[in-house]
Amino acid sequence: MATHIVPQGSAVGSHAESVNPTALNWQCPDCHSTDTVKLPLVYTAGISEIRGRSRIRGLAFGASGITLGLGRLKSSGTIQTQLSRIASPPQKKRYRYYVVAWILGFYFALCIELFLKSAAPGNAVHLHQQFAFFSWMYCGFLVCMLGALWRYNHRVYPQRYHEWGRSLMCRRCGKISYPLGVTVLGSQE
Q1: What pLDDT sits at residue 34?
Q2: Of the candidates 48, 41, 44, 43, which has an alpha carbon nearest to the alpha carbon of residue 79?
Q3: Cα dist. 149→105, 146, 155, 186 in Å?
Q4: What are phi and psi of 43, to 5 degrees?
């Protein structure tokens, strides 16, 4: 099975020719094999969808007489191989988990404030001022956190997804490599 890739800087369209990586003399940096496959192909080849239906009928004889049992079962799901999990694409960050964690943290801090107010009623005004300052700082933290998530999902993720689509896996040793001058965020290649 040949893997076809377009060299960096070539025009995409009718004039672009797909090139086999062996013609470019691309070799695995570890084992020097030219038997490679693209990661999206490895990922999709390892996913299987399952859909099934079953019917059951039965008779049971007991002290109360004859009983008829009927049943139907529908099942569906997805099976993914370990190799497909390794070759899976990068995922976007989900906002809801961070927002729920922020709300739980704020609720916990509010419970602590109410407990301290009931334990020391003479310092309630001072404690309220400190909690108000903490609340503003915690809200600022939420804004910064959501901004960082937005930056990842709209700037970093598309670049990583594009790099994932161009990367190759060696069939001999399993190393994932990024040929043709692709620079991967966080790597030294």
Answers
A1: 84
A2: 48
A3: 18, 5, 10, 18
A4: -65, -50
Within 10 Å of residue 87's Cβ, how many Cβ atoms?
23
- Predicted confidence at residue 157, as pLDDT, reads 95
Q: What does the chain come to in residues?
A: 189
Quote the pLDDT of residue 183: 44
Residues of the chain with pLDDT under 70: 1-26, 179-189
Q: Please state whether the predicted TM-score (pTM) of the whole model is above 0.85.
A: no
3 state DSSP class of 41: helix
Averaged confidence pLDDT in the chain = 79
Q: Estimate to the nearest angstrom the gap between the alpha carbon of 107 and the chain centroid.
A: 29
Amino acid at 110: L
**Burial track 159-180 (b if 16+ CB lie within 10 A, e otherwise):** ebeebbebbbbbeeeeebbbbe
Rounded to 5 degrees, φ, ψ at 56 are: -135, 140
Please check whether residue 149 is in contact with residue 17, taking contact to mean a CB–CB distance below 8 angstroms.
Answer: no
Using DSSP, how many helices (H) and how many strands (E) does the chain show?
5, 5
Nearest to 168 by CA among 189, 142, 150, 154: 189
- DSSP annotation of 65 reads E
Q: Counting Cβ atoms within 10 Å, is residue 157 exposed (0-12), middle (13-18) or buried (19+)?
A: middle
